[in-house]
Amino acid sequence: MRRYSIIIPVYNRPDEIRELLETLTRQTYRNFEVLVIEDGSVKKCDAIVDQFSSQLDIRYFYKENSGQGFSRNYGFERATGDYFVIFDSDCLIPEHYFATVEAYLNALPLDAYGGPDRAHLSFTPVQKAISYSMTSLFTTGGIRGNKKRVGGPFHPRSFNMGLSRKVYETVGGYIITRMGEDIIYTISIIEHGFKTGLIEDAYVYHKRRTSFSQFYKQLHFFGRARINISRYFPKELKTVHTFPALFTLFCMSIPLLALFSGFLFKTALVLLGVYILLIFIDATRKNQSLQVGILSTAAVFVQLFGYGIGFLTEGWRKLTKSTK
Hints:
By secondary structure, the chain is α/β, with parallel strands linked by helices. It has a domain at 4-122 and 143-208: Spore Coat Polysaccharide Biosynthesis Protein SpsA, Chain A. The protein has 11 helices and 10 strands. It has helices spanning 14-24, 46-50, 68-78, 97-107, 125-135, 165-171, 181-191, 212-232, 243-260, 262-287, 290-322; strands at 4-10, 32-39, 58-63, 83-87, 91-92, 112-114, 117-118, 160-164, 196-198, 204-206. The strands form 2 sheets. Strands 3-2-1-4-8-6-9 form a 7-stranded mixed β-sheet. Strands 5-10-7 form a 3-stranded mixed β-sheet. The chain is globular. The model has no long low-confidence stretch (mean pLDDT 92). It comes from Rhodocytophaga rosea.
């Protein structure tokens, strides 16, 4: 039996799985197995997985397409480790990752943990900008990497998450729903009395989307998912989750302000300009790149508008259904 079972769902991303597996071969701590769950892909990665059979304790499974939640559950059922570790297929894992997790869990045991994400030097400027928008303290993304989550215990996210075998045996696998199933799963873990936490140095390099249009679609889905989560756990809808929607409404209201009050119009423009400048300066400094700084301002607007519009549309759908 291995200490860790790494579960990686993959769908039509053979090149990404190759890069991820290459990073696993460079881990300084090696007491783990790898389960690659092919979720009905047309572009299969079985030949690529075979290339790593001499370097990793690795198993490949092909199943009909059913989504990430089902694929993770499929991996849980076949895992042998004490801990199940979930990665998205578009992640790169730094060589110290499992050594860091092992040292942390031995010192401060957790039933489930999560780690943050960062941008790798090899990422494109757009990927770095998207990564900035999803991790910056100037957006709601910054909350995801904090030990003290707003409103309660830390909620691990499934792109970089580990849970003990005991958690799985008690809670079971993912509750399959249309949206937000990873957060719903984490909340279920916490409600069963298990301890969760953030391991700050157990970060991964998360590629996310490679274009702003793909990024918008993803964040629009995330906004809708937050409302869907509230259908299962109403108390989990916090004030902070409304910020992207309020920002979106604020930006959309600026042209209307010009019709009613020149002072309010100018004030709104100044506030928006200051916010854009702060993002530009911070992103440029962190990435040492003017190009990434400029792209990051665009990425932040894509993030907030995508999430905000998804949140508003799904919220309206929920509200109108409840009043019928």
